[in-house]
Design brief:
about 475 residues, inorganic pyrophosphatase (n-terminal core), Diaminopimelate Epimerase, Chain A, domain 1, 5-stranded parallel β-sheet, 17 helices, 15 strands, globular, binds manganese (II) ion
């Protein structure tokens, strides 16, 4: 418990700084993934409540370019708040001539003075599993409100799910996230239950729910309605009842069981591990204040909508949704999510057709360059989804065109000892690009004509590190 007390100390300090400068000008910076966008929404609310004039901007990574931009902007603000990023750039941030708050849960670099850094890792709390930046933003708001503010629990949960922190038993949230869920349950605004986890299965016909499910990605079903229909028919499950489309709730116990095991079998057949395949069944989080027929009622679906709008570059829509706007905004986001799904489905089609995969000794490369349906923000998501296609414990690389050359996203399987971020950083550097990341995930951007050199470098770096 002493750990939690330390985290609450630093939260109090951050709250003090925000309170003291009430009515000032704030520059808020976040990442464009679901957690970043949810954390930004919470923080926007918190700052607006204290009369701040706020300038919000989304950045992809803290690259030298974005850092220079922030450095230029920051001095004209009373306060600079970074959410879901910043702990890796403390040294730079400490040199900025304004008050800086960081709400981050990534592995931090060395500590500096001058920055109020709220990062659970500093207090032996596992920020990769137990709390996201949305959870931290919620805790900051709660600290400022003297323990109140349970209204923001849904966004905190949405952010944690967006970052796949549902790593507890049966894909429940754990640690501080679990505590936050409990507060929401007690206030009657959220419910946790164990069920088949299809996209929006509470609000949508079963057939649509299957087609819309992207986590896990269901090969030949996600984004492909006619083969999804054939899949249901092959199981003897009727998708309609007279005129009406059936929902998951309409299925009897037998049909549910049949569907669950067929889906697991499908995923295993596509190369997913047992653990990944079983993602299809587990804890779901219901946001009780959203209407019964709303896709936002399922917190995972909410997260996927935020994620899709971020990856498609529609940050304004995502934030409007986070701040509570519905109606037209929700309609537009649903449309954007459809476009995102079809990009994923097209990419998977390319992979299934088999011409885009290349096997190196240490990597499996999925080469999706020159595909005009793709944008560079999608590559990270694709790399996670395509990881099962990596042979053995090879590194999975996805290559897409980007405005600055070729962008590569890398993922590794559990069990591989390669440090992905390090490999990407070293290999990119040697060909005049830049790269980095975490233990399991990383990325790089390199000059367009340097892919071959980069790939050779990747093998060299992995071999030199002594990893098998
Ligand atoms: Mn995050």
């Amino acid at each position: 418990m002493s750990d939690a007390r330390d985290l609450s100390d630093v939260l109090s300090k951050a709250a003090e700084v925000v309170e003291e400068r009430s009515g000032g000008r704030a520059l808020l910076v976040s990442h464009y993934d679901a957690d970043g966008l949810a954390a930004a929404s919470i923080t926007l609310k918190t700052l607006a409540k204290r009369g701040y004039a706020i300038h919000y901007t989304v950045v992809e990574q803290l690259t030298s370019g974005t850092i220079a931009r922030i450095k230029k902007l920051a001095p004209s603000y009373t306060i600079l708040v970074l959410v879901d990023m910043g702990s890796g750039a403390l040294e730079f941030l400490s040199k900025i001539n304004t008050c800086v708050i960081v709400l981050d849960h990534h592995l931090p670099g060395s500590r500096t003075a001058n920055v109020v850094e709220v990062n659970p890792h500093r207090f032996n709390i596992d920020g990769s599993k137990e709390i996201s930046s949305s959870g931290l933003a919620y805790l900051l708001s709660k600290t400022l409100e003297g323990g109140k503010g349970v209204d923001l629990v849904p966004l905190a949960v949405v952010g944690a799910l967006g970052d796949r922190q549902d790593v507890g038993e049966r894909f429940r949230l754990t640690g501080l996230n679990r505590q936050i869920v409990r507060e929401g349950v007690e206030a009657g605004i959220i419910e946790e239950k164990i069920d088949l986890r299809l996209f929006g299965c509470g609000s949508r016909p079963l057939l649509k729910a299957l087609v819309y499910t992207t986590d896990p990605f269901l090969p030949s079903i996600t984004g492909e309605e006619s083969s999804a229909l054939a899949f249901l028919k092959s199981l003897g499950i009727e998708p309609t009842l007279g005129e009406r489309m059936r929902t998951l709730n309409d299925l009897n116990r037998d049909e549910r069981k049949k569907l669950a095991s067929a889906l697991v079998k499908l995923l295993l057949g596509a190369g997913y591990s047992v653990n990944e395949a079983e993602r299809i069944y587990g804890a779901t989080y219901i946001l009780l204040r959203e209407p019964l027929d709303s896709p936002l009622r399922d917190a995972r679906e909410f997260a996927q909508l935020l994620n899709a709008s971020g990856r498609m570059g529609c940050y304004d829509l995502a934030i409007a949704l986070g701040l509570g706007t519905r109606g037209e905004v929700l309609l537009k986001i649903t449309e954007v999510a459809g476009q995102y799904r079809s990009i994923l489905a097209k990419s998977f089609q390319c992979v299934r057709e088999g011409k885009v995969i290349r096997e190196g000794r240490k990597y499996t490369l999925v080469d999706l360059r020159k595909r005009d349906f793709l944008n560079e923000r999608v590559s990270g998501a694709l790399a996670s989804l395509l990881l099962p296609y990596a042979k053995g414990d090879k590194l999975l690389l996805v290559a897409v065109d980007s405005s600055e050359g070729v962008k590569l996203s890398a993922r590794k399987r559990n069990g591989s000892r390669v440090l992905v971020g390090e490999v990407m950083a070293k290999a990119a550097q040697s060909v005049g690009g830049s790269g980095g990341g975490h233990e399991n995930a990383g990325g790089a951007t390199i000059p367009s004509d340097k892919l071959e050199d980069f790939l050779k470098e990747v093998e060299k770096v992995i071999e030199a590190s002594g990893s098998p």
